[in-house]
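Supplementary Methods, section 5.1.

A reviewer requested that the exact input to the structure prediction be made available. We therefore reproduce it here, unchanged from the version used in the analyses.
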Amino acid sequence: MRIAEVVPLDDHILYVETEEGTKGVFDLKPYLGGEVFTPLQDRAEFFAVHNGGYFLEWACGADLSADTIAAHLKTLPPDIAQQLNKADPKTAHRAPRNVPSP
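The structure derived from this sequence is encoded token-by-token as follows.
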């Protein structure tokens, strides 16, 4: 699975869309107790997610593989869909197109 887009949302939720067309949400809250994820409790840190296509990463060193995200991706709830409609397009993080597939 390759991540096409990620949008950080309130309450430590990530909206994720894959190149295959799957759309859903990933709840980061269960990870925030881990040492490497602790800095992401800060909203600005969390929102500074980088989409590497096959992983998501943050400047603090926290990262998630596309496989981890796929395993825990949930259906997009209506309230989140509504929030996305209001989201600033500048917060969307698309994967670079020049990264070769493995």
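The chain is about 20% helix and 25% strand. These observations are discussed further in the main text.
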